[in-house]
Every structure is written in C-alpha cells, then in structure tokens.
C-alpha cells in the first residue's frame, strides 16, 4: 500500500479543510447557547463548509469545529485523498485500508502528549469549564459528546472499545448517555460490570483525529485503535489516563476520565437525533461520574448536530454500515456488486446490488444483514440486480417500483432488534429495542424464463444497437441539443 | 435576584400545586452553569407572583409549554449514593 498522508489530529484536519475551502474560520463571537448549534445545523442542511468557530462566548481560548465529516469532500480529506474523489473511490479506499494488516497503537510518555497540557483533578473538576454547547433548543441538556469516542476496556477479554455514544452534561461532574444494549459498551456493562455492581472506568476523547472518530463510529469488528491505524497508515499515539488504566489518543483536544456507575442513573435527553427527530424520550440512562479533565491549550471542541439530512452521523454511518455489510456478504461468497446506503435515508435503507445467480439470494442477503451486528441500525434492505446502478437513486427507485412484487417481493421480519430512536416504532418497542425489518426483493425471479417472462428494460442504453447509440451520442450537439435542464 | 428554572415533564399533571414535590430542575440563570441539573424539594404555583423564582416547562420531546409557574426551592436533594460523591 502506498504511503498515506492523512491528517493525524483534529488540528491538521481543520488546517487541510480551511486550505481546500471546506472549512471557514469564524472570528466573531459565537454563543455556546444555541447559536453554535444553529450554525452547524444550517451548515449540514446546506452542505456548506465546516465552521471553525474561534471565539466562544464565556470561554476564551476555546474553539468549536462543527460538522467535521458531513460531506464526502471532508471525508476524502480525512482519508488523505483528493477532496474531489467520488464516493465509489472513497469506498474502495476504505475497503482496501480496512482489509490491510492491523497496525497496533503506540503508548507515549505523558510529557509528549498534547492532551495533558492542562489537567483538572479533585475539586477543580467541573464540566462547565469546558464550552459544552446547547446543540438544539429544547434538548435535555448541553451535550459534551456529540463527535467523540468513549473509551472502555473489557476487564476479562481485555479488548478496548472506542464508541461514539452521546453524552449529556447533567451537572459539573455527571454525564448521562444513550448506550444501546446491543453496542459493544452496552454488552460489556451487562456482561460484566452491572451484575457485579462494579464501576466501569471510561475516558471520553473529544476533538479526535477524523480517522479516530471514523473508527469510533464504524461498526467494524476490528478493535478501534488498530482500525484507526489501518485507516491512517500509521500507529495511533496513545497516552495513559490520570485516574485509571485506560489509554487515550494523545493528540485529542479534550479527555474526560471517570467511572460508569453500575447502580445509579440520572435523566438523559431528549436530544435531536440522526433520524431527523427527537424520538427517544427523556429517561434514566447510563451515568458517568467524572474524576478528571485534561485538555490541550486552546482546545477545540468538535460538534456534530444531528437532525434532518445531512450530518456526519448519517453520512459516515451510511458509508461504514454499507461497506461493512459488503465485506460480510463477500465473506460468505455472495456475488454482490456493491452495497450503498443513501445518507438521506438516515441510514435506514441498505441497497444491495447482486448478480441473481440462484433462488432466494435476496432473502439470504437480508437474513445476513438483519442477523449481523449491523442489523439493529437499519430496517430496510432493498436488493437490485447487477444491471442497476446502486448509487443512482432514479434507477433504484425505478427498479423498486416496477420489480418488487407486493406479494412475493416484500418480506417482513418480526421481533428483531431495533433502536430506541426509530421514529416509526411504537413507544413500547423503542423502550425495549424491539424492531421489525423488511426486505424489498427487486430481482426478477430466477424461475422466470429470461427470454419470454422477464420484461425488457426500455432505456437508451439497453434497447438500441451500439452503433446507433454512438451515432446519436456523437451527433447530439449537432442535432441542436445544449444539455438538459434538470 | 430571582432565579429561573426549567423542568421536563411528560404531563403537566406532574406539577401539582399546593404540596411539596420532588423534581429534577435545571437552572436557566445565565453563566457557565446554565442548564445544569439538581434534584430538589419544591413548591410550584400557577400564580406567577406566589414565589420569587420562575419555572418554565418543557414536555417530553423538548417542546416549550406555554404554561408558566412560580417556584420555591425548599432544599436540594442528593440522590447520588454518598460513595460516588
Ligand atoms: C454522531 C453519532 C452519535 C451516536 N450516538 C450513539 C449513542 O448515543 N448510542 C449508541 O449506542 N450509538 C451511538 N452511535 C452509533 C455508534 O457510534 C456506533 O454503533 C459505533 O459503531 C459504536 O458501536 P459498537 O459499540 O457497537 O462498536 C452514534 C454514532 C454517531 C455517528
């Protein structure tokens, strides 16, 4: 693999984005109370440059970087690619890097770790010393963690987990968050800490390098420190925490250390979510007690503002859920031509292209997809043939509306795993993560005669002889056409 | 100076008047601690001049209610077990 030159920290990433015109520096004062959130929301809805807000009301010295990965251009920059790279190119690079050899992290000395430039311990610990934003008006609280990694370790197996689980500031020393029971951290808590009544050490890292953040929210089975190394082509630098044995990315902007309480919960939410709604109600959720805060000089807090498309939650999760499913299906020898989730589906619909070589292939795909670790995050799988361009919604929609037979093509899966965030689920189902899912099989049945039963697609590409197509294409401008107005 | 508070409820019936309630309230006073929570014993009244502090209400999904109250914070309640304090 050629040398990768990806930004190694949030700072390098901001610099690269400013240089390419994919971030703007905002020098005027911005209020942490709603204004910063409103800026980030509008940026997401317009697909604008990421805002680097350098002057935060009440918090001199701190800054915000909003919507870090809400465009494919910024995703390409994060991977050290040309910002103009296409989605299939970015996807191919992700697959190449995540199929390479794992790169183990290195632990460095505290003196070399930028995240230790300021250390707050004991009575000095107060989350209100950080510019924690009120992201959306009406949220249940100021959210410390919207674009970050919660770092924990399974005490027996020893595996390290970096996961992006939202965290709300309850008071200066307490946070609460939505950790789903089927997530890695959720399983570690129910498997080990909760039955024993033991506190689970955690560290929240904010202002990660973009690839560390990408690793933290990727549904990959590879441990995130190694995954981050594979994505960036070099070992990630870690440093030991002040108050527990966890190791955190040394170049992160802010680290919050503490313990997840096994037997005490405070309220969390509501919060604007990636589905484009506030769906999950306020509830008593996983509670984090804070023991230490460390941060870089002039620390930058990263903000993701989830809501209607498109924010990085939708963009990045669609991207990595789709590619991880592609890997899974290929590992089972299924002749998939690609997997794509449109971010505007708020990562709810998986579109799979496949060569329909045997009966039941769409069902096999859906069973694997819904039955995998990825499954709770989407409830629709649409399977189209290899002639349909999965990235072209016009083609996919046409296939869906014309080939999916209402009786034989739609298969509902009941009593599966869902999330508390599904807007379409009943309040009861949300509370218990009960899901239901659906397959839209848009393949021609294999037992239809290819010549006499399968309809012919009537398109320029499909029905005209090559020589006529070429003649028409070459003469297009001569006929007087000037390009269609969409 | 009078304090401003906010509470989240699923139903306005949770804010019964004329008796002591225990609520999770957050401060809306300007400053670094705005929006932080505490548990407290309180009394609320729909008569806005009954108590010195004001209480704003939000519903389950963050919708601002147009019902306003005055509030008296009687005392703070610490729910968190002492071993974690
Ligand atoms: C911005 C953002 C916020 C997220 N918030 C949560 C959350 O609050 N709870 C959760 O369980 N997953 C959340 N996720 C999804 C997880 O980050 C994702 O599932 C990740 O792979 C960690 O999952 P794992 O623990 O299963 O590996 C969020 C993702 C993003 C991009």
What is the count of structural domains of chain A?
A: 2
Task: Pick out the low-confidence regions of chain A.
Answer: none
Along the chain, the helix and strand elements of chain B come as: EEEEE
* Beta-strand content estimate of chain B: over 45%
Cα distance spanning the termini of chain B: 29 Å
Q: How big is the Rg of chain B?
A: 13 Å
Number of helices of chain A: 13
**End-to-end C-alpha gap of chain A:** 41 Å
Report the CATH topology name of the largest domain in chain A: Pnp Oxidase, Chain A
Topology:
The complex is a heterodimer of chains A (486) and B (85).
Chain A: H1 10-20, E1 23-26, H2 35-46, E2 50-53, E3 63-66, H3 72-78, H4 87-98, E4 106-107, E5 118-121, E6 142-145, E7 148-153, E8 160-163, E9 167-171, E10 174-177, H5 184-196, E11 200-206, H6 210-216, H7 224-232, E12 237-240, E13 247-249, E14 254-260, E15 266-268, E16 283-295, E17 300-303, H8 312-331, E18 336-340, E19 349-354, H9 361-371, E20 380-385, H10 393-403, E21 410-417, H11 427-431, E22 434-441, H12 460-463, H13 466-479
Parallel strand pairs in A: 1-2, 3-17, 4-12, 19-20, 20-22
Antiparallel strand pairs in A: 2-3, 5-16, 6-9, 7-8, 7-11, 9-10, 10-16, 11-14, 12-13, 14-16, 15-16, 18-19, 21-22
Helix pairs in contact in A: 6-7
Chain B: E1 4-8, E2 21-27, E3 37-45, E4 53-58, E5 64-77
Parallel strand pairs in B: 1-4
Antiparallel strand pairs in B: 1-2, 2-3, 3-5, 4-5
Residues 146-147, 161, 163-166, 177-180, 183-185, 217-219, 304, 313, 316-317 of chain A line the site of flavin mononucleotide.
């Amino acid at each position: 693999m050629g040398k990768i030159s990806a930004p190694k920290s949030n700072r390098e990433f901001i610099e690269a984005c400013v240089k390419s015109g994919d971030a703007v520096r905002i020098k005027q004062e911005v209020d942490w109370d709603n204004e910063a959130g409103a800026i980030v929301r509008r940026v997401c809805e317009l697909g604008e440059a990421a805002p680097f807000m350098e002057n935060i009301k009440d918090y001199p010295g701190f800054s915000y970087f909003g919507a870090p990965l809400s465009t494919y251009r910024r995703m390409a920059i994060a991977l050290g690619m040309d910002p103009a790279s296409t989605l299939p190119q970015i996807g191919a690079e992700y697959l190449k890097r995540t199929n390479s050899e794992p790169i183990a992290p290195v632990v460095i000395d505290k003196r070399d770790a930028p995240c230790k430039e300021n250390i707050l311990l004991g009575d000095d610990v107060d989350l209100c010393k950080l510019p924690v934003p009120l992201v959306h008006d009406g949220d249940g609280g100021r959210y410390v963690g919207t674009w970050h990694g919660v770092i924990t370790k399974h005490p027996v197996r020893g595996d390290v987990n970096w996961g992006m689980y939202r965290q709300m500031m309850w008071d200066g020393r307490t946070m609460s968050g939505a950790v789903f029971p089927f997530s890695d951290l959720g399983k570690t808590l129910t498997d080990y800490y909760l039955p024993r009544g033991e506190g689970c050490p955690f560290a929240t890292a904010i202002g990660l390098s973009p690839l560390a953040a990408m690793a933290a929210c990727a549904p990959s089975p590879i441990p995130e420190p190694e995954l981050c190394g594979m994505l960036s082509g070099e070992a990630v630098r870690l440093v030991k925490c002040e108050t527990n044995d966890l190791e955190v990315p040394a170049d992160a902007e802010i680290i919050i250390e503490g313990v997840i309480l096994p037997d005490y919960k405070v309220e969390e939410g509501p919060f604007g979510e990636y589905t484009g709604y506030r769906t999950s109600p306020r509830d008593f959720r996983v509670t984090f007690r804070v023991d230490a805060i460390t941060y870089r000089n002039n620390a930058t807090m990263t903000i993701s503002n989830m809501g209607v498309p498109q924010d990085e939650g939708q963009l990045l999760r669609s991207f990595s859920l789709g590619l991880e499913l592609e890997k899974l299906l290929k590992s089972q020898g299924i002749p998939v031509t690609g997997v794509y989730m449109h971010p505007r589906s708020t990562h709810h619909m998986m579109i799979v292209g496949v060569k329909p070589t045997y009966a039941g292939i769409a069902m096999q795909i859906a069973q694997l997809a819904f039955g995998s670790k990825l499954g709770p995050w989407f409830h629709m799988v649409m399977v189209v043939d290899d002639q349909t361009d999965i990235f072209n919604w016009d083609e996919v929609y046409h296939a869906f509306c014309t080939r999916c037979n209402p009786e034989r093509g739609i298969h509902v899966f009941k009593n599966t795993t869902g999330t508390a965030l599904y807007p379409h689920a009943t309040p009861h189902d949300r509370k218990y993560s009960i899901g239901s899912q659906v397959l839209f099989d848009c393949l021609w049945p294999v037992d239809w005669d290819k010549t006499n039963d399968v309809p012919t697609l009537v398109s320029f590409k499909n029905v005209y002889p090559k020589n006529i197509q070429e003649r028409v294409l070459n003469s297009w401008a001569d006929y007087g056409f000037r390009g269609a107005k969409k | 100076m009078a304090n401003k508070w906010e509470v989240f409820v699923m139903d306005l019936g949770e804010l019964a008047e004329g008796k002591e309630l225990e609520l999770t309230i957050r401060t809306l006073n300007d400053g670094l601690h705005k929006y932080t929570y505490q548990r407290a014993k309180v009394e609320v009244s729909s008569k806005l001049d009954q108590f010195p502090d004001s209480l704003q209400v939000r519903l389950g999904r963050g919708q601002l209610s147009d019902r306003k109250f005055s509030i008296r914070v009687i005392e703070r309640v610490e729910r968190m077990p002492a071993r974690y304090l």
